[in-house]
């Protein structure tokens, strides 16, 4: 995050990055669309996502059921839309908790240095050594099904991801002379953190959180797929993939397919948005 | 004003600063010269309180700083005693803060002024170092290295320190600005009694800014005395070598490793 090279003109830069920017913008729009669906989904769904219709099971696409129905005749489109909230909320909690805690931990470690920094880094290495998903599955198995335990476990498992990156950047930032200058002026530490260090680290934190969201969504979906997260009849996407699995062999892959595609679209969109933001906010080679 | 006795700094087995002793009176101006790695910047950082000495004493206006991590209030009090301008103007300002705001922040930390008078004080400080209103509203990246260095000087002056340390801070400036800043610093000395501590590798400039010079090599003081005496009649061979390496008429650049050069 140094200053831009002087040779790079404004026009030159816009010209070179325009196609990539468009991709980032597209990814951002997809993300925004799904966030809107998560907020207003239940209002927008054309049918009650849990309304069973025994006459119309495995119905193909039609005017009333745009994506057809599932094994109990529930409208698939309505279930996908209504399930956006459940599918996005859990990874959002994971990302917010691990990002906030991780950033605080990273700043504390970078600021104090010494034994505290070594302790934090060592503890994170240990957490990093545990496969997060397996840890979440284990916790769910012990505490019973439901999203709370896996979300807590994943939040801890995602801590090292954010903390390591932010800590490295925070150490670099903390050693810049402007921080020394503020200390010499007698600026309170809280002020240096809130007014200077955090704003300068925020782009990096944002990028990490965005990329982390895609992974968290996959992990949460996997937990639900295993039957340890959200429980039926909730229309959560991972759960829908697992619900539809038995009928795939009968040549009726719709439910699993559509839910899988929804997961794929959101994960890819978040990853593209993350890399695009990284390029915009942190520079080309970040 | 500033008393340094037997100052010592070790990094592991390496002795960076070895038994450095000097004093700087109010209104005084002392230059510490030496090549890179001679320990001059470490000495400055210890005096400023950014580095903990391994041994020795530093007293500002007769008082030694209390050991341990100082509280905010104590740090502000110390800020009014010593300020430092850093070598690298590119990283000594927060890249997301308008430079006028950086100076305003420094003023606010040291003077409890109503907003109007604070703005006036900021304008006054920026004017002192020759920066205008438009530049005050710029982010650091819109300014040249020399302009940024002047912002850093204005920010340091906001605390009205009794000792101002300039770590290679003049070398980055344009020659015309250099003269202006040196004149400003000279005026500051006589008007407010601020003592100046120059850290530099440039012996040529020392004559114009300091009365006294301290030559450091490998962490030790090899020569110490009035500028004129040291520059005209150097005693230590190291000082002689430094003086010989000042470019002068007829001077031809030679490669490192050639006999006598460097």
UniProtKB/TrEMBL annotation, chain A:
Membrane topology: Multi-pass membrane protein
GO biological process annotation, one example: transmembrane transport
Membrane-spanning intervals of the chain: 23-45, 88-111, 123-143, 149-166, 201-228, 257-277
Domain ABC transmembrane type-1: 84-274
Entries under Pfam families matching the protein: BPD_transp_1, OppC_N
Compartmental location: Cell membrane
CC annotations in GO: plasma membrane
Chain segments annotated as coiled-coil in the UniProt record: none
Keywords annotated in UniProt: Cell membrane, Membrane, Transmembrane, Transmembrane helix, Transport
InterPro entries in UniProt: BP-dependent_transpt_permease, MetI-like, MetI-like_sf, OppC_N
Family to which the UniProt record says this protein belongs: Belongs to the binding-protein-dependent transport system permease family.
Protein name from the UniProt record: ABC transporter permease
Source organism of this protein record: Streptomyces adustus
Automatic annotation (TrEMBL), chain B:
Sample GO molecular function, one term: ATP hydrolysis activity
Domain of life assignment: Bacteria
InterPro entries: AAA+_ATPase, ABC_transp_ATP-bind, ABC_transporter-like_ATP-bd, ABC_transporter-like_CS, P-loop_NTPase
UniProt keyword list: ATP-binding, Nucleotide-binding, Transport
GO biological process: transmembrane transport
Positions of the UniProt region annotated as Disordered: 243-262
Pfam family, one: ABC_tran
Compositionally skewed regions (Basic residues) per UniProt: 251-262
Record domain ABC transporter: where: 2-243
Family in the record: Belongs to the ABC transporter superfamily.
Name of the protein this chain belongs to: ABC transporter ATP-binding protein
Species this chain originates from: Streptomyces adustus
Phylogenetic classification of the source organism: Bacteria, Bacillati, Actinomycetota, Actinomycetes, Kitasatosporales
């Amino acid at each position: 995050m140094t200053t831009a090279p002087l040779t790079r003109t404004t026009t030159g830069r816009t010209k070179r990055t325009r196609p990539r920017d468009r991709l980032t913008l597209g990814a951002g729009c997809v993300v925004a669309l799904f966030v809107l669906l998560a907020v207003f989904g239940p209002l927008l769904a054309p049918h009650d996502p849990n309304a069973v219709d025994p006459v119309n099971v495995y119905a193909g696409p039609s005017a009333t059921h745009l994506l057809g129905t599932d094994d109990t005749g529930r409208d698939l489109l309505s279930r996908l839309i209504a399930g956006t909230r459940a599918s996005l909320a859990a990874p959002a909690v994971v990302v917010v908790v691990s990002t906030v805690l991780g950033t605080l931990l990273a700043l504390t470690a970078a600021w104090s240095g010494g034994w505290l920094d070594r302790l934090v880094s060592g503890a994170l290495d240990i957490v990093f050594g545990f496969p997060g998903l397996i840890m979440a599955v284990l916790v769910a198995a012990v505490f019973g099904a439901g999203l709370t335990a896996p979300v807590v476990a994943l939040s801890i498992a995602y801590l090292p991801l954010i903390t390591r990156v932010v800590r490295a950047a925070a150490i670099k930032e903390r050693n810049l002379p402007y921080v020394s200058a503020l200390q010499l002026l007698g600026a309170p530490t809280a002020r240096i953190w809130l007014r200077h260090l955090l704003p300068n680290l925020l782009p990096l934190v944002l990028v990490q959180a965005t990329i982390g969201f895609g992974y968290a969504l996959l992990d949460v979906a996997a937990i639900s797929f295993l039957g340890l997260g959200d429980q039926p009849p909730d229309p959560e996407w991972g759960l829908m993939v697992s619900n539809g699995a038995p009928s795939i062999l009968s040549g009726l892959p719709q439910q699993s397919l559509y839910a899988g595609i929804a997961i794929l679209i959101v994960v890819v969109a978040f990853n593209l948005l993350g890399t695009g933001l990284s390029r915009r906010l942190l520079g080309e080679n970040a | 004003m500033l008393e340094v006795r037997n100052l010592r700094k070790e990094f592991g087995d390496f002795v960076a600063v070895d038994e450095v002793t000097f004093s700087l009176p109010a209104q005084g101006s002392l230059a510490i010269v030496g090549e890179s790695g001679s320990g001059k910047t470490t000495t400055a950082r210890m005096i400023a309180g950014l580095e903990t000495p391994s041994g020795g004493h530093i007293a500002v206006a007769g008082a030694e700083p209390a050991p341990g991590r100082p509280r905010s209030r104590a740090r502000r009090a110390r800020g009014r005693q010593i300020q430092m301008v850093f070598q690298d103007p590119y990283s000594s300002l927060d890249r997301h803060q308008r430079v006028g705001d950086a100076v305003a922040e420094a003023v606010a930390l040291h003077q409890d002024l109503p907003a109007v008078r604070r703005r006036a004080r900021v304008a006054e400080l920026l004017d002192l170092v020759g920066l205008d209103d438009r530049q005050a509203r710029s982010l650091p990246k819109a300014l040249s290295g020399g302009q940024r260095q002047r912002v850093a000087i204005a920010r340091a002056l906001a605390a009205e320190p009794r000792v101002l340390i300039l770590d290679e801070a003049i070398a980055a400036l344009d020659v015309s600005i250099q003269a202006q800043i040196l004149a400003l610093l000279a005026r500051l000395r006589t008007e407010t009694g601020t003592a100046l501590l120059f850290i530099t590798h440039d012996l040529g400039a020392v004559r114009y800014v300091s009365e006294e010079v301290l030559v450091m090599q490998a962490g030790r003081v090899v020569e110490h005395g009035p500028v004129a005496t040291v520059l005209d009649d150097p005693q230590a061979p190291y000082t002689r070598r430094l003086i010989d390496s000042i470019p002068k008429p007829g001077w031809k650049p030679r490669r490192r490793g050639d006999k006598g050069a460097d």
